[in-house]
Every structure is written in C-alpha cells, then in structure tokens.
Write a structure and sequence with these properties.
9 helices, Arylamine N-acetyltransferase fold, 7-stranded antiparallel beta sheet, 12 strands, 5-stranded antiparallel beta sheet, globular, about 280 residues, alpha+beta
Length: about 280
C-alpha cells in the first residue's frame, strides 16, 4: 500500500494522540482492536478466497469494515506493530478449547508476540469468542493475569492436563478461568517464529477444507469492556460480567440488524442474503 499500514491501523482504531511503542499503548491498541475490527469467517463460510496479502488485508479489515479470522488479524497486526516500533512476530498454535482432541490438532491459530521492556507479550485479537481483550505476559507463567473480562494465565504444557503426546512441539498453554475452573484455550511455542509461507498453508486449510469449522459454520465475535458478543450460525450470545443472554435469529431482518449493529460489519444485502440462505441449510 502507498500509505503506511500502521497509519491506517491507528485511524481505524481511533487512536488520535502521538504514538510511542510503550506497554500502555500496546494494551490500548488491543482493547480498541477487539472493539473496532470484528472476528469472523463470512468469506470462508461462503467459499470465497481469503487472502493474507497485506494490501488486501488493509482493504478488507481497515477500509471495507469487514470481519476476519486469526490468520488475517495477526498477519495485519504483526505488520502494523512492527511499523509502530515494536519487535513483533507471528507463531502458530494448536487449539484445545472446548474439548480434548484424540489426535494432535493442526497448527492453525496465528498469534502475534511482542518483545517489549525485556518481556514477551501475547497480542491476540483473533481467537473469536474467547479472545483475550488485553495483552498477556509470557514471563508470568502460572500467574493469573486479569483482563477487563475473564482472568487468563499461561502454564507449562505439563500442567495443562492433556497428554504431552497431543501437544507436539508446544511449550505453554493459554488458559481462561470460567465457571470456577481453568479451561485450556490454545498452546504455543514462543520460539517457533514462522515464515509467511507457514501462515499461507494454515490459511489454505482453514478456508478451504471441508473438515474446517470455518467452512461449515458462521462464527462472529466482538467485545467491549463489559461483554463479549458471539454469533454461531443463527445463535447470538451476549456474555456480560453478571449474566449471559441468548437469542435465536429467526428472520433475515434480525440477522441483518445483528451483523450491522452488533458486529459493525458493512456488507451489501445481496451477500448477506447468501449467508442467510446457507445458514438455512444448517440444522
């Protein structure tokens, strides 16, 4: 792009003061990111190409006000944060949220790590419904780290309760505290910096495989300091600090209003109708 990506990024997030690559500003960026750039997979759900080319990421996420999944979010943030003066790089993790696998999960979850003030931080706006809404330190293994919503922590994989044979090449497990217990989210190895080609392979699998949930189900997420909002197919859930609400979207008008007002995604009615029609095929 002719315009520096980080400038577009700051404008999109509404960051209007002079920027310096500090820890406080990194926290602010992530908080703003999850509020202004929604997670989602409309493109792969409709069988469309998902590109990780920087100019196309900028066009989709920062200009067209569309959604994206982890590979899009973290590819973009690695570039933007590097331009802003941070030491940022990507790694691929294995997902263990909502169940223990019987085989080793494919490394498909892309995150951005940032080395700052002699610490290493996770900057991950793209995990969907259980996205950490602030940065988390990888130098505080085993310690609870509060966020505006749920507490998180990193533990050594030996302490996560999963057989190490299912954790190939992983080092730490991210866990979230839900319903009075620690729940596994995903595992990463901070030493495994990836090349862009590694992300491309993961993206191809996620966006095209019939075994990928990103081609079979619609998933959207956004958050603020008070609540998480998720959409799985036609089920809208709002998880606030004190209560959770659930709503089934039974009409196209409800669906369109939710996409535009809750998730702030801009999309023409024809494409939204295509999504709604495919949702009708899902039992």
């Amino acid at each position: 792009m002719k315009q520096i990506i980080s400038t577009r990024y700051l404008n999109k997030l509404g960051f209007e003061v002079d920027f310096k690559p500090t820890q406080d500003n990194l926290k602010t960026l992530l908080s703003l990111h999850v509020q202004h750039i929604p997670f989602g997979n409309i493109a792969s759900f409709l069988g469309e190409e998902v590109s990780l080319e920087p100019d196309r990421l900028v066009q989709k996420l920062l200009i067209e006000n569309r959604e994206g999944y982890c590979l899009e979010h973290s590819s973009l943030t690695k570039i933007a944060l590097t331009e802003l003066g941070y030491e940022a790089y990507n790694v691929l993790g294995r997902v263990y949220y909502q169940g223990i696998p019987t085989t080793v999960p494919v490394r498909t979850h892309l995150v951005t790590l940032v080395r700052l003030d002699q610490q290493l931080f996770l900057y991950d706006p793209g995990f969907g419904g259980m996205t950490p809404t602030t940065i988390l330190s990888l130098d505080r293994i085993g310690e609870m780290q509060p966020t505006p919503l749920e507490p998180f922590r990193f533990v050594d994989i030996a302490a996560c309760g999963i057989d190490t044979s299912l954790l190939t090449d992983m080092k730490y497990m991210l866990q979230v505290f839900l319903h009075d217990e620690w729940v596994n989210v995903y595992a990463i190895n901070p030493e495994q910096k990836i090349a862009p080609a590694d992300a491309e392979i993961a993206n191809w699998y996620i966006s095209t495989s019939p075994e990928s949930m990103f081609t079979q189900h619609l998933m959207l997420f956004t958050a603020n300091s008070d609540a998480r909002m998720t959409l799985k197919d036609r089920v809208l859930r709002i998880h606030a600090k004190q209560k959770s609400d659930k709503k089934i979207l039974s009409t196209f008008n409800d669906f369109e209003e939710t996409i535009k007002n809750v998730f702030q995604i801009e999309m023409n009615q024809e494409k939204l109708q295509q999504v709604w029609d495919k949702l009708a095929l899902i039992e």
